[in-house]
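thought: user wants a sequence for this fold. calling inverse folding tool.
action: design(structure=
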């Protein structure tokens, strides 16, 4: 429905029609009698299990005005039945149903629409594999739809394209750039592979290993190339400025989800549990007209993969770090370096909250010295010990923060506010969001 105002359309007033049925009321008493008939009809329909949307409008109004009650303690029997209902309801497991596809009957050949116009069907085309990949134009042998044969052809060991695309995607996620940079396009307008023999070798090994993604990742991360340092020599930068020949590991920023999960891990709030329903992202309030509902700031500690993404609005923190919008398949994400990302790590309420959570945890741990605590926090955030210079500077920072917040030197290890600032500083180190 189109309307010329910013607010959503107002609810219909169809539930008031019974008031105007029959003769026009001549007095207040006649109008009250009309209300009584409408209310009695709504209650009667509810009791008979025939409630309509209009009846619900009347019943909701009566409950809001406290003219009706739905208290379970109205009678002992009603209270007992309600308790039994809640008990049974709590024991029900969540449904685990997924959509599936099956051949339900003979398949039908479909015409190709001329220039994509559904009103101009062309000749019928037999069901077969993609012609650009199969010059024989052999049709499917099954009398069914052909979906199963199509899937088998796509995942066939004799089809090198599927394995090469998958290997390239995994390489892209591990190195930041695929052996073929255009991960979504292996066609003639896409880029050529930087190491074609390596791509073919890994694709063959991937198929030989039973299409195991874990084995492929293990094979790559145990290679010398993956374990190289990110420091490049001047000669390498001059000869290969884009590092396509991988003379050193290409340092890159982590994905949005990994950054958020790292915050939760450092603070001790990360919930490693698998599966379960998604969690609404944090918003200051609900926008029910757009189906945008507010969730907890830290998402109950759930990993970012379980944060619900709505096409109307992506999660705010993840959006700052180039999370895809969800409307278009995106094999290669944008990677930007903009001021909004630095501001998010400084001011976003999630970052501030997790710094406080981390501070409470380290204070409760009770380390022997400031230096020991700084070393432990470096291990948690960066998986390494601080250098002597870093340890000295952070110890000095702890003393200066204690002075700023009027904390005595003897109470520094007990001060959550001091260690919240230290935790927040570690979150804002470039190394925290980059893979060196």
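)
observation: tool returned 436 residues.
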């Amino acid at each position: 429905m189109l309307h010329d105002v910013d607010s959503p359309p107002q609810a219909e007033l169809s539930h008031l029609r019974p008031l105007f049925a029959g003769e026009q009321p001549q007095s207040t008493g006649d109008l009250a009698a009309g209300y009584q008939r409408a209310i009695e009809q709504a209650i009667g329909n509810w009791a008979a299990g025939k409630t309509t949307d209009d009846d619900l409008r009347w019943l909701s109004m009566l409950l809001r005005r406290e003219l009706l009650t739905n208290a379970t303690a109205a009678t002992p029997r009603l209270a007992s039945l309600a308790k039994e209902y809640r008990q049974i309801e709590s024991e029900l497991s969540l449904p685990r149903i997924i959509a599936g596809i099956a051949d339900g009957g003979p398949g039908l050949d479909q015409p190709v629409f001329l220039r994509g116009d559904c009103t101009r069907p062309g000749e019928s085309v037999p069901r077969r594999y993609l012609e650009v990949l199969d010059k024989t134009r052999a049709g499917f042998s099954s009398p069914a739809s052909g979906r199963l044969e199509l899937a088998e052809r796509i995942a066939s060991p004799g089809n090198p394209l599927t394995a090469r695309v998958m290997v390239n995607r995994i390489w892209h996620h591990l190195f930041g750039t695929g052996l073929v940079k255009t991960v979504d396009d292996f066609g003639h307008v896409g880029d050529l592979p930087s190491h074609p023999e390596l791509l073919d070798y890994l694709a063959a090994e991937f198929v030989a290993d039973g299409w195991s993604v874990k084995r492929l990742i293990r094979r790559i991360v145990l290679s010398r190339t993956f374990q190289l340092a990110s420091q490049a020599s001047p000669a390498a930068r001059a000869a290969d400025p884009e590092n396509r020949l991988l003379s050193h590991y290409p340092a890159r920023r982590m994905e949005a989800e990994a950054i958020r999960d790292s915050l939760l891990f450092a603070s001790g709030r990360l919930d490693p549990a698998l599966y379960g329903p998604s969690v609404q992202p944090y918003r200051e309030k609900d926008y029910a007209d757009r189906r945008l509902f507010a969730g907890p700031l830290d998402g109950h500690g759930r990993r970012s993969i379980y944060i619900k993404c709505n096409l109307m609005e992506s999660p705010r923190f993840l959006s700052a770090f180039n999370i895809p919008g969800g409307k278009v398949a995106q094999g290669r994400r944008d990677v930007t370096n903009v001021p909004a990302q630095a501001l998010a790590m400084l001011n976003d309420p999630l970052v501030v909250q997790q710094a406080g959570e981390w501070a409470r945890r380290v204070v409760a741990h009770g380390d022997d010295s400031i230096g020991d605590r700084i070393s432990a926090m470096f291990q948690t955030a960066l998986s390494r010990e601080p250098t002597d210079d870093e340890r000295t500077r952070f110890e000095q920072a702890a003393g200066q923060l204690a002075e700023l917040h009027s904390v005595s030197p003897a109470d520094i290890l007990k001060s959550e506010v001091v260690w919240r600032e230290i935790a927040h500083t570690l979150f804002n180190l470039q190394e925290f969001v980059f893979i060196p």
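thought: summarizing for user.
answer: Here is the designed sequence. Residues 349-435 form one domain.
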